[in-house]
Design goal:
Strand content: 25-35%
Oligomer: single chain
Shape: globular
Strand order of the largest sheet: 2-1-4-3
Helix content: 25-40%
Length: 87
């Protein structure tokens, strides 16, 4: 599984990275582990999965975490998470 993460502010890409997980773990575990890894790499607190994030991710394998998903103030408009390759 490959997941692409992007930090966007004012329609501009600030940072991006791709996380690859080839383990035999479940899809959900891979997604949460990748999100943890990116938050550590980008020095962010972990976002809260709101109902809108869950439904968007189920439909499109993609979601955006905006300010309302983070406890602390963030210097970007959103963190986008997009599954670009499944096992």
């Amino acid at each position: 599984m490959r997941i692409w993460f992007k930090l966007i502010k004012d329609n501009r890409l600030l940072k991006d990275t791709t996380v690859t997980d080839e383990s035999e773990d479940t899809r959900t575990h891979k997604i949460f582990r990748a999100l943890d890894e990116v938050c550590l790499e980008f020095d962010l607190g972990k976002p809260i999965w709101l109902d809108s994030n869950v439904s968007e991710f189920k439909r499109h394998a993609k979601t955006r975490f905006r300010q309302d998903s983070f406890i602390e103030q963030v210097p970007f408009d959103f963190l986008e998470m997009h599954v670009i390759e499944e096992d």
